[in-house]
Write a structure and sequence with these properties.
Blueprint (H helix, E strand, L loop, with lengths): L3 E2 L5 H6 L5 E6 L4 H16 L5 E6 L4 H6 L7 E6 L2 E7 L4 H7 L1 H4 L1
Parallel strand pairs: 1-3, 2-3
Antiparallel strand pairs: 2-4, 4-5
């Protein structure tokens, strides 16, 4: 199961009004590390479907949101809960490191 895409038009419904925690992967097509972390995030989503939702946001297609959330380097991941950013993860990491960063949400 791969992460669903979100965009400026669906952001409020997909992210800010979501029931549980939502990890948003800010990425771009040309970003090699983004492509490396994507399958890891898909695995985390598949293993924790009741605990966290993983969404992808293409920063090239949604520059307004990238600017609003101060995305200056990618991959960048932010976990939203209750409409607020709860944690930020910058850079591609191995699965165990991402799981540690997300322990408060999937632990």
């Amino acid at each position: 199961m791969s992460a669903k895409a979100t965009s400026s038009s669906t952001w409020n419904q997909d992210v800010l009004e979501a029931d549980g925690p939502v990890l948003v992967d800010f990425w771009a097509e040309w970003c090699g590390p983004c492509r490396m972390v994507a399958p890891v995030l898909d695995e985390i989503q598949a293993e924790n479907p009741e605990k966290i939702t993983v969404l992808k946001l293409n920063v090239d297609e949604n520059p307004d949101l990238a600017m609003k959330y101060q995305i200056t380097s990618i991959p960048a991941m932010k976990v939203f809960q209750g409409g607020e950013v709860k944690t930020t993860i910058i850079g591609a990491k191995p699965k165990f490191a991402l799981e540690q960063d997300l322990a408060a949400f999937i632990g």
